[in-house]
Design a protein that fits this description.
rod-shaped; about 0% strand
């Protein structure tokens, strides 16, 4: 009996060693299903990752284009601000000239006052309307 038991143990150990050395191709069905599910999930995640990477690239390009537009608009704004300041200075200078031109000029020489009084004017006769009966 001990001898039979030893033989069975020896056969079991040899079988296990044989499977370990040769590799076991047997997978339980539940484990195979889990492996397939995980492979499917990895494939789905990789597809989503690729899509998100494409979206990131598109958004980066759009950001760069918008930043270029912002820089251009900022430069144009500075130019227009300079032009406005220049035009305001010109308007102020023209306004000052216009005010000086419209101001009454002081006479350069004193004008002599006439000493003689002008002749008296003849009184103007008023016409009286004729009375009607």
């Amino acid at each position: 009996m001990v001898n039979v038991l030893r033989q069975r143990i020896l056969v079991g150990v040899v079988a296990v060693m044989g499977m370990a050395v040769s590799g076991c191709d047997y997978w339980p069905p539940a484990l195979q299903a889990q492996v397939e599910q995980l492979r499917s999930e990895v494939q789905t995640v990789n597809m989503e990752k690729a899509q998100l990477q494409n979206q990131i690239n598109d958004l980066s390009k759009a950001k760069q284009e918008l930043q270029t537009q912002v820089d251009d608009l900022g430069r144009m704004n500075r130019e227009k601000t300079g032009m406005i300041s220049s035009l305001q200075n010109q308007v102020e200078a023209l306004r000052v000239k216009a005010v000086k031109a419209m101001a009454p000029k002081a006479p350069a020489k004193a004008v002599a006052k006439p000493t003689a009084k002008p002749a008296a004017k003849a009184p103007v006769k008023k016409k009286v309307p004729a009375k009607r009966m």
